[in-house]
Amino acid sequence: MKTFASLLTFIVLIVVLSINARAQTCPGSPGCLDLTFGVGGTAATYIPTTTPLSPGKGAIQSDGKILAAVMVLPGSSNMTDVIIRYNPDGSLDTTFGNGGIVTMNWLGANNTTGHAYSIAVQTVGTEERIVVAGTGTGYTSSLRVDRFHSDGSPDLSFGSGGTVTYTAGAAETMAIQPDGKILTMGTRGALVRLNLNGTLDTTFGNGGFIQNNTWRVQSIALQSNGRIVAAGYWTNVKGVAFMSVWRFNTNGSLDDGSRNDSTRSDTFGTKGQTTITSFNTAWDVKIDATGKIVVAGSAGASGSTDFAVARLTTAGQLDSTFGAGGKATVDFSGFSDQIRGVDLRSNGQIVAVGFTYSGSPSSATRDAAFARFNSNGTLDSTFGQGGKVVTDFSSEGEFTSDGMIQFDTSCNCEKVIAIGTAIAGGIYYAVAARSLL
User: Which end of the chain has a smaller Cβ tally under 10 Å, C or N?
Assistant: First the structure.
């Protein structure tokens, strides 16, 4: 058994090194992998499971450590979802959980498997605690939120044993307010606000939440005045999806100008919603330094999509100073390109992270894709090849689900972290990669 374990470790090491070696495709210029991070710019973490992995979202602590939520898909007999924490240099943080990994037992009724989609850092007193949100039973049934101490142990002051569950649909996204309250939103269009201890905030909406089943929200962000911006998609009666953005007031009312709107003098978009008909879905939203709203996702017909970024004014109108009429798209020459994470640099540039499919639909491979936009929506030609980079971590494909700007104190400069998964030798790995900006 010891010999077999040693052999397995050796095989896994070879595969991990092959992932990193394959990703080393360009020298040290903007868009290239940062060779000071992990091995050759990537950190591949083996998760022992018999089913595929699916990456959730990531977060960066104030000390530069990187958090990643990773979902283990149904069918595995030995594990549910995990949280991984990396040191700023890409090594596993052995002070967290078991060697840098916390295993979450998210099993619901009848052995249905819950999933952790979103992760955030919440300051409680002087400690940065880790909040994970998703679903407790299946993909859409219930909202589950867990909180952990900085060492990965459950925070018993939160809910029951560190966990709360509510009948409100899965949480696809989460944000932490400056006062520590937790906002989640997701599959059933339910916007929920929790107090610091995990109880529903009854001053918000109707007993702590508002809901509209036509909203499909995948990201939320907070404006400086506390209003909540939600981005995702809206589907018409023909089943066609359109990128949509909504805004809610601090009490949970939709900012639509109706009698229920607590700020009727300045409504958002059209009746609280802005629909971008030429784009089909939003996966991430950020608020820039001027208060404008940056929304990122995809545009185009199903099976032939491009990176898509739109910028809205604070009132929810397309910003004509950005791109073409407030919109910008990027084609990576694959048959399907999609942004899954977007972040903003201190100089106003927009960094988008996602994936591109290449080859034919029947035998496609999925690679990580990056784009950098100037503040006016044009591609930054100094980044990669004409503003675009495709990074191939593994010949068997990868799935990049989030992107975040990290400030690297070793160079006093900004770099981009991509969170995802990769397959090599038939084995699934969680992957964090860092690229130069």
Answer: N
Q: Which of 384, 306, 382, 295 is nearest to 344 (CA)?
A: 295
C-alpha–C-alpha distance, residues 411 and 25, integer Å: 22
In the 8-state DSSP scheme, what is residue 13? H
| Strand 241-248 with 228-235, pairing | antiparallel
Bridge partners of 403? 418
Residue 350 in contact with residue 342, Cβ under 8 Å? yes
**How many angstroms separate the CA atoms of 62 and 64, rounded?**
5
Q: How far apart are CA 326 and CA 328, in angstroms?
A: 7
Percent of the chain with pLDDT over 90: 67
Looking at residue 117, its amino acid is Y
- pLDDT of 77 reads 53
Q: Which long-range contacts (CB under 8 A, 24 or more apart) does 166-169 make?
A: 166/142, 166/192, 166/200, 166/209, 167/142, 167/143, 168/142, 168/143, 168/192, 168/209, 168/211, 169/135, 169/140, 169/141, 169/142, 169/143, 169/211
Task: Tell me the percentage of the chain whose pLDDT exceeds 70.
Answer: 87
Q: List for the chain the helix, strand, coil content (%; round to 5).
A: 5, 50, 45
SS3 category, 10: helix
Q: Please determine, for residue 399, whether its predicted confidence score (pLDDT) is greater than 80.
A: yes
- Say whether pLDDT at 324 is over 80: yes
Token digits of residue 116: 């952790």
Band the pLDDT of 262: cuts 50, 70, 90: low
Region 356-371: what's the mean pLDDT?
A: 83
Cα–Cα separations (whole angstroms), residue 387 to 32, 104, 351, 373, 374? 12, 39, 10, 7, 9
Q: Is the pLDDT of residue 323 over 50?
A: yes
Query: Are 70 and 53 spatial neighbours (Cβ–Cβ below 8 Å)?
Result: yes
Rounded CA gap, 44 and 323, in Å?
Answer: 36
Smallest Cα–Cα separation from 279: which of 310, 303, 304? 310
Task: Please state, rounded to an integer, the average pLDDT across all residues of the chain.
Answer: 88
Q: How far apart are CA 376 and CA 97, in angstroms?
A: 43
Secondary structure, 3-state, 243-309: EEEEEECCCCCECCCCCCCCCCCCCCCECCEEEECCCCEEEEEEECCCCCEEEEEEECCCCCEEEEE
